[in-house]
From TrEMBL, chain A:
Pfam families: BPD_transp_1. GO terms for cellular component: plasma membrane. Residues 17-209 form the ABC transmembrane type-1 domain. Its main location: membrane. Coiled coil: none annotated. The keyword Transport applies. This is D-methionine transport system permease protein. It is a multi-pass membrane protein. Keywords: Cell membrane, Membrane, Transmembrane, Transmembrane helix, Transport. The lineage of its organism: Bacteria, Bacillati, Bacillota, Bacilli, Bacillales. GO terms for biological process: D-methionine transmembrane transport. It comes from Paranoxybacillus vitaminiphilus. The chain crosses the membrane at residues 20-44, 56-79, 85-109, 150-171, 192-211. Belongs to the binding-protein-dependent transport system permease family. CysTW subfamily.
From TrEMBL, chain B:
InterPro entries: AAA+_ATPase, ABC_transporter-like_ATP-bd, ABC_transporter-like_CS, ACT-like_dom_sf, MetN_ABC, MetN_ABC_transporter-like, NIL_domain, P-loop_NTPase. It holds the Pfam family NIL. Residues 2-241 form the ABC transporter domain. This is D-methionine transport system ATP-binding protein.
Amino acid sequence: MLLDSLINLVPELNKAFLETLYMVAISLSVAIIAGLPLGILLFVTDRGLFLENTTVKSILGFVVNMIRSIPFVILLVGLLPLTKLITGTTIGPTAASVSLSVAATPFFARIVETSLREIDKGVIEAAVAVGATPWMIIKDVLLPEARPGIVHGITITTISLVGYSAMAGIVGGGGIGDLAIRFGYYRYDNTVMITTIVILICLVQMIQFAGDRIARLVDKR
Amino acid sequence: MIEVRNLVKIYSSKKNKVIGVDNVSLTIKNGEIFGIVGYSGAGKSTLLRCLNLLERPTSGQVIIDGVDLTTLNKKELRQARLKIGMIFQNFHLVSSKTVFENVAFALKAAKKSKEEIEKRVNELLEMVGLTDKRDAYPSQLSGGQKQRVGIARALANEPTVLLCDEATSALDPSTTKSILALLKKINRELGITIVLITHEMEVVKDICDRIAVMQNGKVIELGTVYDIFTNPKEELTKSFIHSVLQFELPDHLLKKRTGTIIKIQFKGEMAEEAVVSDMLQTFKVKGNILHGKIEYIQDMPLGIFIMELTGEPDEVQRAIDYISARTNGLEVIASAA
């Protein structure tokens, strides 16, 4: 009986799992591509650093805080016009990826900023004293020194995205979380509920494990 | 040549102003080792950091080899910094890069080609004696080795000036000695002007040609190391020198003595003359040396002796006058009981 319902569930689960991976992959890529430069910019424009610029710093800081203060469910709905503009549709995993990307980018940017802040200021100063250009300092000092922290940041962002993607069901985004709510919660189907939870737990554990391993590999200190 | 003119650095926050450097003017000659001494908070570190504009002076000029750094734009300043090496108390190496990569970074900043970088880094590592640590990471090195990497990085682009920010303060005494020897070698062989700040008078005594003593942001005394050591004028300078040339006798020893205790200071050539033995032969006094030391500062001797003289008071007085006339300083610590 239990096995039967599980077997029946396999196609649904498979589809949901792939949808989750799809949404997380897209939004994580956007978060890294946009969030990394944003995080670096937040850091280097700070007071006393080599690209000090109070105006840029406060504008970026304000925007990042603004997006981060909006609950994701509201962001998901509120960004529907933007989603329509970019993807041409407001339903499905691709549509949900837009809001996920918008939410993940400032989140990741702050993590990048924090890991850069951990770097000994003296090391940056030594690079300035040597006569290096800002770009060289970013590429050859900041990024290598913050690499383990940034990898941890990617891990945290990925796990958060897995969680956020559960809400994507609201716009018909699909994914494992959505499956859990539709079958497990609305239909009182405990088998689905427990199976999805087990899958999510395994997924998150795997992401964390892989993230930790990679962080250790890139840590040369 | 480094010229500092009317340099002022004020740190102002909303509530108060702190003066870091208070109207300092000084000239550092080509090829000399110039020390800046003072307690922490005296402004010596700020002054040093103004020399390559890590700190931008509030007012005043910093002229290195004829170029006023305060007038340069960002790009020109980067070019100028290639020729001003700097080493730090805590080394400030990039921990995720190997020794080779750390040194190569400075050459990359000067836009050198891969081949040039490879060749020059190997040269530099040989000079600082770290050829075998080429591929090690900073965490695998000792403090002295890290500072050597710092020195190699600072010298990469053949600078004319090397700034040392408490470069030996984090090192143990024997490592300090070897780093100082290396700095001296660099100064002699490459003719690089070295400006160092320190609170350790031993360092100054070992390698500096001239020193400036700083207090509350001002230079209160400036001169050759030998002059400052043999004839300090300010109280602060005296207390600094005291830390190197300690000549205190234990109290119980002083109490037991019955004769006149004098402290004699010999400078230069006189330290090598037999003034004391002449005195003992000329006058009817007995001399007993309680403490003595000859320090060599910049290879010039500075001798200090503490003696007890016993005999007829008149003879003792005449002996004291005799020595007084022939030495640089005589101080009666305790008269005959």
